[in-house]
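Q: Sequence in, structure out?
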Amino acid sequence: MKNVQAYATEIIKPIAEELGYYLVEVSYKKEVSGMVLAVCIDKDGGVDINDCERLSKALDLPLDEADVTNGASYNLNVSSYGLDRAFKTDYDFNKHIGQEVIIKFYKPWNGKKQVQAILAGFTESSIDIDYENSKHTIERKDIALIQKYIEF
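A: Exactly. Output:
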């Protein structure tokens, strides 16, 4: 049996791109309602409910025809990137370079469990930040959560 997430991504990505969306992430997981094929998209200017509905409708037939879940029932959930999305992918990090982020740590870093800083860069294993007027490199394995800082 094919990996559902990888197989679905092969089908979803070109359709999303053709409609003008960037495919951020595809996941296939068990939720209270059953198995969910979750699709996260983004575009310049942001994604609204109409964009989600448009892509969802465009995916229905191709996903059914490809039988990505080998006959198992699932719910398709297309959603926008989201302001408070935790960073998981290179896309997340690239999108927020030069912006303020909140970083929560597994154990205190510089005596703090959480800091607000400017994301300056990243690699596969670390991030670079500007914090309190100096540059720091933090190992990604030490970060419990990183997300965009949102001022209310």
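The longest helix spans residues 49-66.
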